[in-house]
Amino acid sequence: MLDNNNKIAHRRKITIVTLLCMLALVALFVRLVYLMVWRADYYAEKAVELHERERSIKAARGRILDRNGRILADNRTVCTVSVIHNQIEDPGRVVEVLCKELGLSEEYVTKRVEKYSSIERIKSNVDKEIGDAIREYDLAGVKVDEDYKRYYPFGELASKVLGFTGGDNQGIIGLEVIYEDYLQGKSGNILTVTDAKGIEVEEAGERRQEPEKGRDLVTSIDMNIQAYATQLAKQAMKTKEADSVSILAMNPQNGEVLAMVNVPEFDLNDPYTLPEETTYTTQEEYQNLLNAMWRNGCINDTYEPGSTFKIITAAAGLEEGVVTPQSTFSCPGYIVVDDRRIRCHKTAGHGAETFVQGTMNSCNPVFITVGLRLGVEKYYRYFVKFGLKKKTGIDLPGEAGTIMHKMEDMGNVELATVSFGQSFQITPIQLLTTAASIVNGGRRITPHFGVKVLDEAGEVSEILQYPVEEGIVSEETSETLRGILEKVVSEGTGKNGKVEGFSVGGKTATSQTLPRGSGRYIASFLGFSPADDPQVIALAIINNPQGVYYGGQVAAPIVRQLFENILPYLGIAKEDVGEDDATGNQS
Amino acid sequence: MATRTLNKSKRKEQSEYYFDYSLLFIVLFLLGFGLVMIYSTSSYEAFQEYNDSAHYLKVQLLACILGLFVMMVVANIPYHFWEHFAVLGYFLSMGSLFLVKTPLGVSSHGAARWFRIPGVPLSIQPAEICKLCMILFLACLICKLGKNVRTWKGIIVMGVAALPHVVLIKVITNNLSSAIIVLGIAALMVFVADPHYRKYIIGGSAAAIAIAGLVYAIVTADSTDGMNFRFRRINIWLHPELDPSDTGFQTLQALYAIGSGGIWGKGLGQSMQKLGFLPEAQNDMIFSIICEELGLFGAVSIILLFLMLLWRLMLIAMRAPDLLGSMLVVGVIGHIAIQVILNIAVVTNSIPNTGISLPFISYGGSSVMFLLIEIGLVMSVARRIQYREM
Lengths: 587, 390
Known about the structure:
The complex is a heterodimer. Chain A is of the alpha+beta class. Chain A has 19 helices and 19 strands. In chain A, strand 2 and strand 3 form a beta hairpin. In chain A, helix 1 (4-38) crosses helix 2, helix 3 (91-102) runs antiparallel to helix 5 (128-137) and helix 12 crosses helix 14. Chain A is elongated. Chain A starts with a helix and ends in an 18-residue tail after the last helix. Chain B has a domain at 29-76 and 240-390. Chain B contains 14 helices and three strands. In chain B, strand 2 and strand 3 form a beta hairpin. The chains are: A alpha+beta, B mainly alpha. At the A-B interface, helix 1 and helix 2 of A face helix 7, helix 11, helix 12 and helix 13 of B.
């Protein structure tokens, strides 16, 4: 049928077609080699990711310790109880047991048991004993996973400083937020191989990635001081029927905060419960009340510092040389600035006085005069130089900034009021830090709690560093001012702050809150000791005290009592009162 | 001397004609291997769907037995007998396509591609009938055209003959891949029948350039352009991870399976991807599960088996006693080769995803049955070859 020529051509074409097909198959073979050898790891990894179901294992959060190693925030083992719908054999019994052991309503549990899902959480943060008890029943489809819950052994002590954690063990407020990265750790995983519907493939077994524990944070808080200060604050709040009382204690040399009290505090182990008599109607209102309860007044709120701020005016005046301790003034009970008559708190006037006496008397005209001698521009320059315009940089969230006039808007009247601590607002921590920096020889320190971070073995893995700005005032000014402030306590308005056997420098303040004439006052006292080489600086603020409201009478005794207890505790040597050569040592 | 006498006596005992046992064994091996892999890939899903892990295996086994029986019958009928039915088959197969639109039609995955013969448990894919009938019809047509195959007129006649099926398969059963296969078979047969080269080289190059140009245009097209939507399939091919919900998902899952098999594979039955992750695991995607379980070596073995099969078919096509026999075998070569190449190319994401089954191995009763009938035809051709020819 075929002639020979045609047959040969034909055969050649068949060969070509077949060989082309074979060539294509060889090319595909090369492609397979590429996929299965070079890309094998990539695709295998992707496939494993797809096949494995993760159940995370929470990492133990790092603890928070005080300066003496006492645990302020710890972890407690708790359990999470969940049910796996597909594995439940006896739903009735499961519901019954879970209702009984967890104290939940039958309706709630039944709904969850009957819900078709891969895993349904019934209750978390269950005590370990209850979790163990449920495990004892050995019910099919009920899973009890161990978990950690934050626990605060001291309850409400330093609550607004430490903060607490949320459901996922993440920090919500306070140090828990700021040091989240250190404390958090890394959660691990239990990986189970499942098919596309999520059913576990039993032969495949489990793979565990162990969690990494968070690191411990050592803070500068001294829980003994914190506890005592809290007690003092509570007492003052009760006797003076005050709205709130804050006490701050800090090492003025390095900015380590020893205690920060804001009463009323709240229970860190139960942060979502408002005080008993509080009422609210909406969820939003509830949240606002919670936020108010958690608020750290020393850092988040500003106030008019009043006379304690005269320390700053004095430092600026002395530094600039517009005033010396011996400069003389005369106070008729008021001073006229431009067209304004500004009264002294002593309406009869202090008469003739030196600058030292003026400070002891907390005489407004004296400080207004100093302020005016400096003039707006210079005063403002010192205000900035002392660090008052910027935040202190404390390691707590939500620090409020200073509310101050703009320099170009400041006239003599504004300058006069600023000179004695009115018409602008700063936070208590800002006042304390600035005063500490002036009396410590002129080093602007950064107030802080975090000192160092420990690794799992308890070894120091990181020492936290904070900026220090040298020379905001000269050592000479600092020394002069320390002497003047010591006089304020030993002989002046701050004599209630006197501590037997220790030299104390300080300044009182009584400021009327805005709006003026409301009859609400803030009484405060800022004190440090030893006066010539301050080791502790403290600030007590009583918000809206009833009855006597003078700082010298209300706040100074608090700092005195605090110092009486903590100075010996801190190992500061007693000295003969009046002698300036004794030095304190911190153990 | 001894061997020669032995050979001589052996020849005398057997028929004078050739029976290709190698071909039979390769086909049987592929079928057996396919059954094992179908059981491995489908048992998990079969148990969940039908509460019988061997469900798919049983159906396929039935199709194989039936197919082998028909194959032996066809192998023993001289292939010239079918010449009389070429035209009838051509029109009947075309008509069968319309059956899917009748109440006999069976739909799956949103496409009506099967019809059921009442009383028979198997459903039949008419596209498979078309492939067989197209091979027979074109082989006969080429014989009829004689020397005219080398003219443009002859080529156009053959093209026009193939076109109705191609269009109907695409339009009625919405089965692009089968349409491409029928077109491919026809093209290969025309190429072999016509002794000329130049027009095919030019045509092939032009097509290759056009495809490359189109792909380039799509790759560089602005994402807001309409091109992106129209050529979605091609975009998914280039970036399967961008469409993890649909076609791209299947491609990705196939790649995961292939890649995670590695050189040695996970072992027979150990595939993870068949546990519901890879859609159509026992069907179009069975090759990727072979790769996952048996590794590169398993995959290479399969490719080698197909190479051997093509080699045997090529020999038979070249030694066929006449043009009809030769062209029938060329058609079968085209059918099997195109499907194997396209199937492996799809699962390895070498070309855009389109549903093509792997001959003899993928699950699919009508596919395996009609393939076996084609093998029967090839055997019938082979029987006409005298020993001196081989």
